[in-house]
Known about the structure:
The chain is 20% helix and 42% strand. The protein is an alpha+beta fold and 309 residues long. The strands form four sheets. Strands 2, 4, 6, 7, 8, 10 and 12 form a seven-stranded mixed sheet that branches. Helix 1 packs antiparallel against helix 2 (20-38). It starts with a helix and ends with a helix.
Amino acid sequence: MINPLVKNLVKERFTMKQSKATTFILIILILTYMIINVNAKEENTDKNSITLGVYSSSQAYAPGDSVNLKYTLMSEEDKKIDLFRIQIDYDPIALTFDRVNTTDNISASIFKTVEQDGKVTFLYLKKDKELLLESGKESEIFDVVFKSNKDVTTPYEVSINSGIVSIIDDKIKVLKHSNPDATALKFDYPEPEVTSLEKLVPSVGELIPSFSPENLNYSMQVSNKVSDLTFEAVPQNEDGIVKVNRKTMKTAGFTTDFKITSYAQDGTKSIYTVSVYRQTKEESEESSQIEESSESDSSSSKSESKASS
Length: 309
C-alpha cells in the first residue's frame, strides 16, 4: 500500500512545471523509498546511527506563550541524507501547531508538512543536493512553533513526543536511529507584580475616604483660590513608576478628575482617580465661616472647661 505522504508528494510534484529529467529522478527516489520501507527491518542493522535532537527555548511558559522547538540530526560519521520522515505527537487541547521554519541545511529540497489532530509529520526529500551530516556534529534542520492555550486557568504540564519514522542515506539504506525522550513543558501563571500605591497625599486638602492602597477612587474639595494641585504618590514596588495626568484645576464650580497611574516593570498598572471639586467664591466664604465658627466654639469649650476646673 502506498504511503499517503508519498502519494500526496507525487501528486503535488506532477503539478509543477519541471523538466522531464527532474520528474524522472523524483519518481525513482520515491519508488526506491517505497521498496526500502518494505525491507526496512533488514537494512536497519546498519552500524551507523542517526540521533534526533530536540531543544526547547524554555521549560517553563505562561499560557498563551509561543513554544519554539529546535530539531537537529547527528551522525556517528559523515552521512548524506536523501530522505527522512519525522513525526511529532502533542496534546491538541494544550497546543496548536503554528508553523515550521526550515534551515539552509534542507533548503534545496522538497519538504512536506502534514498536520492531523495532535500529530504533525515532516517529510524531506533530496532535490538538488543531499543533507550533509558531519561526524559527531549536530545539524539543525528546522524549528517548530506551537501556540499554547491561553484560556487555561490552572497550571498544567504537557509532553511532546518527537521521533524519526525513517531515514535514508545517499546509498539508499535505511539507517538506524535513536529518538529523544519526551519534551516536558510546564505552563503556569507568573506572580503578578505589585502596582498599588503605598502613599497618596494631596498638596492641599484631604482625601475622602482616607487613603487605602486597595481603594482606587476618592473625592475632595478645595477653595476657589486653589488653581493647581499636586500629589505625593509613593508606589509599593520600589521599581515602580507613577505618573499624574495633570496638575491644573478647572474653573471654580467644576470638578477635575486627577488620574494617578502606578506602573510595574512588566507594564501592568493601577489607576487611582481623585475627583476634586473647586468651590465657588461664595462656597469658599461659607466654608471659611463654618470653620471659624467651629474653631470659636472649640476655644470657648476649652475656656469653660478650664474655668470649671
